[in-house]
Amino acid sequence: MAKHRYYYYDSDSCSFVELKSRRRRLQMQVAGVVSIAVILALGLTWGMDHVVETPQELALRAENEALQQQLADFDQRIASVSSELEKLSEKDQELYRSLFQADPISEDIRQLGVGGADPYAEFSRFSSSASRVLRSTAEGLDRLERQVGFQTDSYRELTRYASDYEVQLEQMPIMIPSEGRVISGFGMRYHPILKVRRMHYGVDINVNTGTPVVAAGDGVVLEAKRGNGYGNYVKIQHETAGYVTLYAHLRNFEKGLRPGRKVSRGDVVAYSGSTGLSKSPHLHYEVRDLEGRALNPVYFLAPSLTPAAYQKILEEAENTTVIFD
Known about the structure:
The protein is an alpha+beta fold.
């Protein structure tokens, strides 16, 4: 059985309108109002989330900004320390390594560990400002770590050079082994016994028999014996300095002197005489390198003499044409 239908007279349209159509229209109007209200509520909620921050969020934001500023300041301090290390490195290269005659460190070694894949890619997930500060600070720390490690290794090496250099200076044969006048120098000379001109590999110092003969530098006794035309002679090796000194025509050796004994510059090692191929008492003194090449002993004496005294010895050594051995 059909349901009853109800109508009302609509004066605007001058017609009867079924009652349910009006209800439907009213429902639609109510639904529209509700939808608008929901949209407004959602919009207000979103705005509150993005505009109005809680006290905790404000504190976190302030803390984040303070940390970024602190990192930025730290980055500047890293750059300053890195700059000072670079200056030390330049002084290392230009001064200390030149002073100790050490090889300069190549740029390839200085740049070791630089390059390759981006090690700071993980910072890209942060905001641009935070990522920039974190990346700069990390790069600075890595650079500083490399510089400190590099400079530490370099100074460790230079310390070793300095230690060797100190030993080398102590071993340099710069002391006149016996007080007396140089009566024959280095070079071609006439031998008074053999009656021929031949190479004189040292200098002859005019001293009386029994005059103390001292080591010209720190070293180790290689030989103390009699042999060849040298008569009694002592040979001392100055290994770090790179030289060997020889003292010949000796009357006798200092008591207890034997191969392997360490001596210091100025220690008495023997006493002068006229043994071997010698015309009269004197000291024959030689300096050779570790390969046995003879060197002019006079050139080693400059550091221990005044300019005037050194000039006098040079003239004495050059003005003689006869040797005593």
